[in-house]
């Protein structure tokens, strides 16, 4: 699906235009990394969307701000478009980041071709690539037969309920006829499918007592350990389940249950703990059912309740697995654009985690993720993105949109 004849000249102009944005791209990413949009709880969201909105306004892009009240941490999304017509492609990205290891992660630094900082890989580097792809198309004067819609959202890192899910359920996000593209750090592959996710927070309740009168208390920690022991037995069964879909590394084909990603108990070493809590995070292969995975965990926890353990179980997030149609025009066009820019042929793979293509795939809108950054460094203490990868992705997104809306 190539643009032919005179439009090839425009494609080369787009590539040159993106190359000329190099310093602006670096400066913009440094600015975004310095805004600590940590989720949870949802800090600095207003500051971030104000920054993005000002840039879009200066560039002449029509957009609007959507606010969702949420106690002390309201949620904000930006939606907009460029061009006009029924045919549309959606550029979609999130600006929230996972909690930092240290405050230094919000002080971006450049070392050679790498830009370090929290969110540089997941996914502010990709967000910047989307922004400058839009700018390149606009400044090259490309006449689109259709439009590029864009949405920048919060809360992806916690399930997307007040971000993408809210926009779709409220009818604020129009249905993109050609599909959705988002710049997750995919390590050079295209994610056309994703695993499901189910996260529980379990709080066990006991009774406090002085250590010298331990017999008068009920040790919530010890009860929690018994629950965890039975979960470890279940984990052995869960890990035997594998997906047949392509995924890298191969070990990631197994179903996942992470126990104790967050945990804690008590108030002091010399007091019987009256409470203990921990999390259970299930990552569910497409061959599994979210409802069955939920029932499996609930049944196990109910057995402990029946033997007298008092506990409160809260579902933190849940999302179903999904898969896009790899024969969709967006799939082939994106693959060709990646090959043209990087000289590499990308593979379609299953994302080992939960990703927002699911909101679109499950509505039969083909959703694909491809972006700068490496999954293995995202969320880490030394998170970084290669500057050259951001430039390449900006070119790829521009060419994909240009070819689809030729």
Could you describe the largest sheet, including whether it forms a barrel? 6 strands, mixed
**Average pLDDT, all residues:** 96
Helix content: 25-40%
Number of helices: 10
What percent strand? 15-25%
| Biggest β-sheet: strands ordered side by side in the sheet | 1-2-6-3-7-15
Please indicate the count of domains.
2
Task: Give your account of this protein's structure.
With 406 residues, the protein is of the alpha/beta class. It has 2 domains: 6-194 and 322-404, Zn peptidases (Aminopeptidase); 198-319, Alpha-Beta Plaits (2-Layer Sandwich). Helices cover 35% and strands 24% of the residues. It has helices at residues 6-20, 22-33, 45-59, 120-139, 164-169, 220-238, 290-306, 329-342, 357-361, 387-404; strands spanning 62-68, 75-84, 88-94, 109-111, 114-116, 146-153, 179-182, 190-194, 196-205, 256-265, 275-284, 310-319, 322-323, 348-351, 367-369, 384-386. The strands form 4 sheets. Strands 1-2-6-3-7-15 form a 6-stranded mixed beta sheet. A hairpin with a 2-residue loop joins strand 4 and strand 5 (114-116). Helix 1 (6-20) crosses helix 4 (120-139), helix 2 crosses helix 4 (120-139) and helix 4 packs across helix 10 (387-404). Residues 1-5 have low confidence and may be disordered.
